[in-house]
Design goal:
The complex is a heterodimer of chains A (116) and B (113).
Chain A lengths: L2 E3 L4 E5 L4 E3 L2 E3 L4 E8 L5 E7 L5 E3 L5 E5 L4 E6 L8 E9 L9 E2 L3 E6 L1
Parallel strand pairs in A: 2-12
Antiparallel strand pairs in A: 1-4, 3-9, 5-6, 5-10, 7-8, 8-9, 10-11, 10-12
Chain B lengths: L4 E3 L2 E4 L5 E6 L6 E8 L3 E9 L2 E4 L8 E7 L2 E6 L8 E8 L7 E2 L3 E5 L1
Parallel strand pairs in B: 2-11
Antiparallel strand pairs in B: 1-3, 3-8, 4-5, 4-9, 5-6, 7-8, 9-10, 9-11
Classes of the chains: A mainly beta (116), B mainly beta (113).
Chain lengths: 116, 113
């Protein structure tokens, strides 16, 4: 069975500072990794994904994530946080064993709070 | 494209009643997923379809839940009879291919009294 861990329920960062939201995963086969963001009373919005290739993936709104196979991690990062980045962030995984066609397994989410 | 469309956005019903949630995926997408979000359990995959065929329904909680996809542009999730513990936000998502990103609808907030 595949699983995702987001060890922090909440991350607080001052505006302008770099941010990191942590994610580790467990999956059979090669992982397909995703980050989504959810604003209050809204659906999830896709930020970025890792399928194969370069370990550093760039996505929407200046976010990036680094895939680390040995540490089974896929941490989300941004060099300079904005107040508008405050939201709930989800890491998700599916497996290459199903061609990536399986539904996503999500972490429990991390509340990111950017303080002015 | 209007994105994934879900209806209704909010549903309040009484225990024992039948509830039907509806989803229209993005045109041309081959995969459709139903998820449920609760505070206690987070986001859970309920079922997904490929080319209108159910592939994995292992996440469906019990026989009270059923899902159909009669054509490429429409899917329903039905709960009969509904119970208070079914209260949650139900999301529909679609994707073009198996490994591609999923696009989520706005969700249906279900409250069962």
């Amino acid at each position: 069975a595949q699983s995702v861990a987001q060890p922090e329920d909440q991350v607080n960062v001052a505006e302008g500072n770099p941010l990191t939201v942590k994610c580790t995963y467990s999956v059979s086969g090669n992982p397909y990794l995703f980050w989504y963001v959810q604003y209050p009373n809204r659906g999830l919005q896709f930020l970025l994904k890792y399928i194969t290739g370069d370990n550093l993936v760039k996505g929407s709104y200046g976010f990036e994530a680094e895939f680390n196979k040995s540490q089974t991690s896929f941490h989300l990062k941004k060099p300079s946080a904005l107040v508008s980045d405050s939201a709930l962030y989800f890491c998700a995984v599916s497996s290459s064993s199903g061609g990536g066609a399986d539904g996503l397994t999500f972490g429990k989410g991390t509340h990111l709070i950017i303080q002015p | 494209d209007a994105g994934v469309i879900q209806s209704p956005r909010h549903e309040v019903t009484e225990m024992g009643q039948e509830v039907t949630l509806r989803c229209k995926p993005i045109s041309g997408h081959d995969y459709l997923f139903w998820y449920r979000q609760t505070m206690m359990r987070g986001l859970e995959l309920l079922i997904y379809f490929n080319n209108n065929v159910p592939i994995d329904d292992s996440g469906m909680p019990e026989d009270r839940f059923s899902a159909k996809m009669p054509n490429a542009s429409f899917s329903t999730l039905k709960i009969q009879p509904s119970e208070p513990r079914d209260s949650a936000v139900y999301f529909c998502a679609s994707s073009l291919q198996g490994a591609s990103e999923q696009f989520f609808g706005p969700g249906t907030r279900l409250t069962v009294l």
